[in-house]
Amino acid sequence: MLQSGNCGDCLTANPGDSAGGVAIWTPVQNPPGYGTVTLGVCDFTAGGCVSFQIGDPDNGPFTPQPGDSTEWIVEAPAGFGYSYLPLVDFYQVSFSAAVWTADYEGPESQASTINDGVSPTPIWLWQTIFGSNQYLAVPSPLGGDGASFTDHYQQPIRGGNN
Q1: Domain at 68-162: CATH code
Q2: Whole-model pTM?
């Protein structure tokens, strides 16, 4: 369950739902180079969204200005001591309308596709399993729209290398 504020703003997501997210960094005047972050998640299947702001524009806490890269990811959860927990068999996760903008100016902002980036690079998630490095999440090539792909779970093989 995702929630923003009190439980009147709860959003229940179910397996197989189509969902999306956004993060918006908004600069503050003081200190320069810092700002607040608004995070939002929508469940398009259920028809609801939640959002919350990290930091108060007047009192903080503030986050530094973000870098110049964007990622659409499926990743393994981190455990204690910076180790990774086993990745569950998620079968596949499809990303569509994966876009970004350097300067968000509201709903009318012009967005760019993954393919419009400087050097779009697929990343395969791997872990050391059964004594060998094995790929566990493998992205497909970008779709013709330049903004869609599917990440596929790959079952580890005992004693095998990928």
Answers
A1: 2.60.120.700
A2: 0.72
